[in-house]
Amino acid sequence: MARDRNTTEDFIGPIRRLLVGLLVFLLLAVFLIWRIDSPRVEQFRAAVIDRTVPSFEWAMAPITGLANLLTDFQSYQRLAEQNRDLRRELQQMKSWKEAALQLEQENAKLRDLNNVRLDPEFTYVTGVVLADSGSPFRQSVLLNIGARDGIIDGWPAMDGIGLVGRISGVGQSTSRVVLLTDTSSRIPILIQPSGQRAFLMGDNTLNPPIEFLENPDEIRPGDRVVTSGDGGLFPADLLVGQVALGSDRRLRVRLSADYQRLEFLRVLRSRPREAILDPGTLLTDPAQPDVDAVAPVEEVSDNG
Amino acid sequence: MVESPVARLWLGRALFIGLMLLLMFIQLLPLQTAPQKWAAPDIILATTLLWTARRPDLVPVWSVALIFVIADLLFLRAPGLMAALVVIATEILRARAHDLRAAPFPVEWMTAGFLIIGVTIGNRAVLAVVMTAQAPLALTLTQMALTIIAYPVVAVLSQVLFGINRPAPGEVDSRGQKI
User: By the CB < 8 Å criterion, does A251 face chain B?
Assistant: First the structure.
């Protein structure tokens, strides 16, 4: 096979090979820098995403809307069936509603008796989901609110009902929410009737498993799971979901938030709890500040 | 069609980059926020390999590097690693592109398949060496298998939509040279 290109390739070949080698070396260097100094490169990544993704918003919104319309349309086919189910559910709900109303009145009375005040500092910022992680291995979404809206790393994000994830990575006008289902997500939780503390470990499935549970026998499927607020990571008592027994006999959490369709997320402004650092002047003599001598002080880290 | 050969060449290259950006954009759409049991095939990788095997002149190294660095950044992968591996893979494929053209399609498919396996395993191996958190193995394997299976589909679509066919031996390229 006579190839007159060969003659030119012999010139260019070695130089080209050198340049390609250099390119590969450069890319690997970027990777190594990322491994060594991850926060700075991640900042760069956040800046790139901050710059590029919102500019697609005009195209993303209609296409996403269209796709959702299609899935909605598919559900029309099962309309009659759904109607019947809904009616049955409504019947059940009516009885529940009665029960709830009674409980609400009772609850209000009890609150009145105790003079309980709910945390007035719970305010939130609502953001729209711009994009997901784009990869099946990472579970995160990008919101259209960022540092300019006062978002800070580590704040919890909820949909209307339950906890969805936590802010990790804030750009000027975007922020990333790592979902509870991501493999790197670990959330301290409290399982309610039994009051046991455990961790919710994301493992890339819809129902993350519960780990570090002291006594699994006291847990029953259907128990409420809320955040425990341990370590000052999250405010306590945010609804996460319900305990469910997985097909692999592991205790998992059926998340309350609707992960099938995350559209609007609330980011709670969670303030660090006040840390108790000194034993207080009433208990000890202020002249001798010997902290170790008194009862161990609950130390609350100031930030997650 | 009165385009000059050089314009056609650059049009093809721009088409490649535009197509890749479009695919990335589609992947970023927040359609599926619940985790899946299986991973969709990596169409970007399959398309890059296919175009490199068939029309290496339309897929210069710099565009491969550029596209995959952007993908690494957007898809929260380790930046640079996947790009480096894919550049190596396309270079291997580019060196064989001439011989592959004369070979039947299954040979091309197998070569691409081995490269996809190589890229996947290389990626995991390097991540393991530097002790980074890894994606679940089952997901990676399904994605790898599905990418290989998707290759012929990508081939048919590229041929129908963009005319990326396998040049017959002796065909001339845009500059009138044999390719």
Answer: no
